[in-house]
Amino acid sequence: MCVAYLFDGHNLIGALSGLSLTDVDDEARLVVLLRGFLARTRRKGRVIFDRGAVGRAPTLATPTLGVTFARPPRTADDLILDVIAKEPNPRGLILVTGDGRLQDAARRRGAAVLAPADFARQLSAPARAVPGREDDGPRLSPDEVAAWERLFQVRPDHKS
Q: What is the pTM of this model?
């Protein structure tokens, strides 16, 4: 997938108010925010996290957002460097990270870099209407709707 945004997941979580790396569902909560942002901006992206729950990435991923958890001994940084090196259109890539080494690698390839604090402002910005369109709301594919339904499904061990 040729991505428009490449997110350093845990680096971004640490920079967003309302999210904490100590939360059990911090990755899922970030993914929900990123899905909304990508739908609103009509862009695609990929978020990469350091190790996580086995099998979670496929359930969190959608056609517009790829989700990858690094498997030790590799780290999220290793995978991000791989994506940057292999990106066929690095000038179309926006890396969101505060990690200087990753920023340098992205800039050397011609990719844009966005600090997590700057991205946080974009994340909370209101959607811009497209002139001439009555409904500028996000369009979700059937796969994305199914992914949202799975994410918010009430588990039998939880009481309402």
A: 0.76
